[in-house]
Amino acid sequence: MSVDYVLNAEPRNDVGKGASRRLRRSGNIPAVLYGARRDPVNLIISQNEIQRQLRDEGFYSNILTLNTVGKPSERVVLRDLQRHPFKPTVVLHLDLQRIVEDEEIRMRVPLHFVNEERCKGVREDGGIISHLMIEVDVTCLPKDLPETIEVDVLDLRVNESIFIADLTLPPGVELEESSDLAVVSVVYPTGAGSDEDEGAAEPEGDEPSSDPS
């Protein structure tokens, strides 16, 4: 089920480093809205509101409805955010980009791994799942932007991988990643190996004889 992500903002007229510091001390953060061949607009967003929104990973990769006081709603995407260097939960600044419905956008979309608990390489081979990527870059029209891209690991065995080229994409979506990149693998736990590997480590022949001298 699709989630409607809504972000509330106010216009910002007072700009500059000093104004930004005062804004943050008051529990708000500065933001900028740009794109769609229109002038950038400076905004104010509540720190509490953005903290609440960022708890949902879908907020990073979905189209948002931006409600600015005194202005019509706009459809935007989160293009960048700056966090405090020592307090990573504190956001210092947001970049929002307007979207144009008939123009393609490039976004990072999370990968959604399914059937991990039933994966044959784990249940039958004793392996573990190694996630090599957790998101991918896609290009598509705004209407085609997926919330996630599914990766089914049910039939994956030990020493096998799923690659970018193996992913099933929704219609209208293209991947920007190289097709030969591995997305997920099943491997033996560190220090473990197959029976064949253990057998190969055994010395061939009988037990070595003791030194006659």
Characterise the protein shown here:
- There is one protein chain.
- The protein is mainly beta and 213 residues long.
- It folds into 2 domains: 5-98, Ribosomal Protein L25, Chain P (Beta Barrel); 105-198, Beta Complex (RNA Polymerase Alpha Subunit, Chain A, domain 2), CATH 2.170.120.
- Helix content is 13%, strand content 38%.
- The chain has helices at residues 17-25, 47-54, 120-123, 195-201; strands at 5-11, 28-35, 38-46, 64-68, 74-83, 91-98, 105-114, 128-131, 135-140, 149-152, 161-163, 174-175, 182-187.
- The strands form 3 sheets. It has a 6-stranded mixed barrel with strand order 1-3-2-6-5-4. A 4-stranded mixed sheet has the order 10-7-9-12, with no helix packed on it. Strands 8-13-11 form a 3-stranded antiparallel sheet, with no helix packed on it.
- A hairpin with a 5-residue loop joins strand 4 (64-68) and strand 5.
- It is elongated.
- The N and C termini lie far apart (80 Å).
Brief description of this entry?
The protein is mainly β. It has helices spanning 17-25, 47-54, 120-123, 195-201, and strands spanning 5-11, 28-35, 38-46, 64-68, 74-83, 91-98, 105-114, 128-131, 135-140, 149-152, 161-163, 174-175, 182-187. A 6-stranded mixed barrel has the order 1-3-2-6-5-4.
